[in-house]
Design a protein that fits this description.
Helix content: 25-40%
Structural class: alpha/beta
Pfam families: PFOR_II, POR_N, TPP_enzyme_C
CATH architecture of the largest domain: 3-Layer(aba) Sandwich
Radius of gyration: 29 Å
Oligomer: single chain
Number of domains: 3
Organism: Evansella caseinilytica
Protein name: Pyruvate ferredoxin oxidoreductase alpha subunit
InterPro entries: PFOR_II (IPR033412), Pyruvate:ferred/Flavod_OxRd (IPR050722), Pyrv_Fd/Flavodoxin_OxRdtase_N (IPR002880), THDP-binding (IPR029061), TPP_enzyme_TPP-bd (IPR011766), Transketo_C/PFOR_II (IPR009014)
Domain Thiamine pyrophosphate enzyme TPP-binding: 551-655
CATH topology of the largest domain: Rossmann fold
Strand order of the largest sheet: 19-18-20-21-25-24-26-27
């Protein structure tokens, strides 16, 4: 059992009353933030840190804190929000993971270099590619050079305690730097353990103290300051020196604050967590949860007479070199286990820092072994810890490390078990029916499309094989397959990160019958534009021989047109010959149904909770079709599976424009029964109601001219917005009397957009 958890059973005298419970690391990070009552949190959903914002949103709906929660368009935006807020002297909080940290990373040195405190929880996760959403430390290691203080938390209890200590350290007059609290994704973030928390948030606030005054801020009109002025080399050197000195001072401040916190809470967090290290001859040096898993093994080895111990730092920036030298003074061999690698460096970051610390002790002869383990959330069991100890014991006995650096747990693979192709490639004529005719009307400069009855298109093979992992009733693949019924010939398909990607390409399986690419959430359009241009350049040089009807399609959804909007607009302005197709499920469904900018006002998500203080999302949904139309691309359309002929015709037009003119953008509405809280069987009904209520109008913008392709008013089929909302549990609260004002605002906005669209339909080029 964890030493920290063990101490919870001890009788102790504390300054403040505490309550015992079983909670996860993410819950405890949110609890600490709520009790501190930060001014602001800028956030963006990414697994496994997403829950922190979700819990805070739920707490806010219950009136448990006053933190202003701002949903950013991506992690780069969330870091900018936090930095801007910090310049005012506000207390600021954030949480992220993996590629989210990397996306915001250029903002982090700005925050530390300009000395604005804040606290960010880094819920560690593997950095792609390939994509793996489980926990290792590859993201944490990128943070080592950002100039932030970094605390590491092994248990949910430590997550709570260190979040309280972190703000006090960050704001200390000798530090004035932002702080990261890093803990293991899923191992610590999601697993519930016994914890104690302070019953009264006032006690937490008294410990942290008032936000310090007297420092330069951006909102002091009597004392205006310039923040982030350009510096030359001499000044920058001085600035960086001062920052460096502050980071080293954080070492003493950490000890000071942890001593105060021990008196306040009864829990002690020394610079190093040392387990049976007083006389240890062999040791493991491990971060976070793996250290906890190794302590039982130490007990077993001690029972056999082997003097084993475990070292785990509670702070790694600044790096506790002196304590490490002291802890390893009499150790014959130490194995540094790292959940990340510094490729080509013969050991990852902490290995070299441990070696560097020992180098300064001329009398130290400790043999240092390095093992990369547990990548992508690969479990670390007691047997693995025992194998680590055995490697250290062997080195101690031999007097040297036979293999100083290695990966642990890797398998070389067997040639006879290589992956065989299961799906016969489908190319060329198999996707050409000859039944779809697209011709250009020279007089109107628009395309005319003739399609056969739908039953004749059923013979056309699907682009995605069965066996994917989509939820029952998911609208992504029926919608995409219907769209592709209108695409003739071969295609290269790129998916943004999202449900559509995750459920179709889990190694070693794939549901994709044609070439498939995945890249990051934020830059799919740019990626495919590079693919397109390289294709045409190689074709121009005669290096490849591929038919001209090759079609390039990028598929986005699950909020991808939030974080990926900048890339999409840039790609549109360059007018590459490709299609961007958005499946709109009105949220970040792949990370747990968080709010996206396409979520309608009032709708419930995991970060727009419905409660006595909150009636759902607070602002209107983004109209991506109109945004993309403003880039003057040749063709924009909306569609839905509920109107199949309309969608197939638009797909055929999209292909023609993508092959002959330039970029096409299409948006199709699809259902997500799991997170919309709707019946699986009601998908088509819900989509038709969305169109008939004019929430999701069907139209196209061809060469700048808008045409409504289905007008429910003209067909006398228009329904009330409430007749659409009633099908979805996420929106039923809007039909209650106490939320009538939200429904009324939603209805007014839908009507406003519909009227504008009708004017554009009636007046070309408006």
């Amino acid at each position: 059992m964890s030493i920290i958890e063990d101490r919870l059973n001890e009788k102790k005298t504390t300054v403040a009353e505490q309550v015992s419970t079983f909670e996860s690391g993410n819950e405890m990070a949110a609890t600490a933030a709520a009790q501190i009552n930060y001014h602001l949190m800028g956030y963006f959903p990414i697994t496994p840190s997403t829950e922190v914002a979700q819990y805070l949103d739920l707490m806010k709906s219950k009136g448990l804190h006053d933190i202003e929660l701002i949903a950013a368009d991506g992690e780069h935006g969330s870091a900018g929000i936090c930095f801007g807020a910090a310049t005012t002297g506000a207390r600021v909080f954030n949480a992220t993971s993996a590629n989210g940290l990397l996306y915001m990373i250029e903002q982090l040195p700005v925050q530390s270099g300009l000395r604005f405190p804040m606290v960010m929880n880094l819920v560690t996760r593997s950095v792609s590619g390939p994509l793996d959403i489980r926990g290792d430390h590859s993201d944490l290691y990128y943070a080592l050079n950002t100039g932030w203080v970094i605390l590491t938390a092994r248990t949910p209890q430590a997550v709570y305690d260190m979040n309280i200590m972190a703000l006090k350290i960050a704001e200390h007059a000798d530090v004035r730097l932002p702080v990261i609290v890093a803990y293991d994704g899923f191992f610590t973030s999601h697993q519930k353990r016994r914890v104690e928390y302070f019953k009264h948030r006032k006690d937490v606030q008294n410990f942290v103290g008032e936000a310090p005054k007297g420092y330069p801020v951006s909102i002091d009109k009597e004392n205006p300051v310039t923040i982030g002025a350009h510096m030359n080399g001499d000044d920058l050197l001085n600035n960086c020196y001062q920052q460096s000195e502050a980071l080293y001072r954080a070492y003493e401040v950490y000890q000071e604050v942890s001593a105060e916190y021990e008196q306040f809470s009864g829990r002690k967090y020394q610079v190093l967590d040392l387990y049976e290290m007083e006389d240890a001859e062999v040791a493991l040096f491990l971060l976070n949860s793996a250290a906890e898993s190794s302590k039982d093994v130490v007990d077993r080895l001690r029972a056999k007479g082997i003097k084993a111990g475990v070292i785990s730092p509670n702070i790694i920036r600044p790096f506790p070199a002196e304590e490490i030298r002291n802890a390893l003074k009499n150790v014959k061999a130490v194995l540094v286990g790292e959940r990340a690698d510094s490729y080509g460096g013969n050991g990852a970051n902490l290995t070299h820092e441990v070696k560097s610390a020992l180098q300064d002790d001329k009398d130290n002869n400790t043999i240092v072994l390095s093992r990369v383990f547990g990548l992508g959330g690969k479990d670390f069991y007691a047997d693995d810890a025992e194998n680590f100890f055995q490697a250290a014991i062997s080195a101690a006995e031999a007097g040297y490390a036979e293999k100083p650096f290695d990966y642990y747990g890797q398998t070389p693979g067997e040639p006879e078990k290589k992956l065989e192709q299961v799906i016969t490639p489908m190319t060329g004529d198999i996707y050409k029916t000859g039944l779809i005719k697209v011709t250009k009307d020279e007089e109107s400069n628009k395309l005319k499309v003739r399609i056969p009855p739908l039953r004749q298109l059923t013979q056309k093979p699907k682009r995605f094989a069965s066996g994917h992992g989509a939820c029952p009733g998911c609208g992504i693949f029926p919608g995409l397959e219907l769209f592709f019924k209108g695409i003739e010939g071969d295609a290269v398909i790129l998916f943004h990160t999202g449900c559509g990607y995750v459920v179709t390409s889990a190694y070693p399986y794939t549901s994709h019958k044609q070439p498939f690419i995945h890249n990051l959430f934020q830059n799919g359009p740019a990626t495919l534009s590079g693919t397109v241009e390289a294709f045409f350049e190689m074709k121009r040089r005669g290096e490849i021989d591929i038919d001209d009807d090759f079609t390039f399609v990028m598929i986005t959804g699950d909020g991808g047109m939030d974080i990926g909007m900048g890339s999409a607009v840039g790609t549109a302005l360059r007018n590459h010959k490709m299609i961007i197709l958005e499946y709109d499920n009105e949220g970040y469904m792949n990370t747990g149904s968080q709010m996206s900018y396409s979520t309608p006002i009032g709708h419930m998500t995991s970060t727009t909770t419905v409660g006595k203080n909150k009636p759902g999302k607070a602002f209107h949904h983004k109209d991506t079709a109109q945004i993309m139309a403003a880039t003057n691309i040749p063709y924009v359309f909306t569609g839905t599976e509920a109107f199949p002929q309309d969608l197939i015709k638009k797909a055929a037009k999209a292909q023609w424009y993508a092959q002959h003119v330039g970029l096409v953008y299409g948006k199709i509405l699809i259902t997500c029964p799991l997170n919309w809280k709707s019946e699986d069987r009601d998908g088509e009904t819900i989509m038709k109601a969305a169109v008939d209520s004019c929430f999701f109008p069907l139209y196209e913008i061809e060469q700048g001219e808008t045409t409504i392709t289905y007008n429910p008013e003209a067909k006398k089929k228009r329904i009330e917005l409430s007749d659409w909302l009633k099908y979805m549990g996420k929106a039923k609260h809007m039909l209650k009397e106490e939320n009538a004002h939200v429904l009324r605002e939603f209805e007014n906005e839908v009507e406003r957009r519909w009227r504008i669209l009708k004017v554009k339909h009636d007046t070309p080029f408006v």
